Amino acid sequence: MSVAFRRESDEEHLEPSFELPLPLGPNWVTARGLRLTREKVDALEAALTGEMSEEDAKKLKRELRYWRTRLATAELRPVPDGGTVAFGTCVTYRQNGAEKTVTIVGDDEADPNAGLISFSSPLARAMMDAEAGEQVEFGPRGGMLDIIAISAVQQD
Question: In this protein, which residues make up the domain named Transcription elongation factor GreA/GreB C-terminal (predicted)?
Answer without folding.
Answer: 83-150
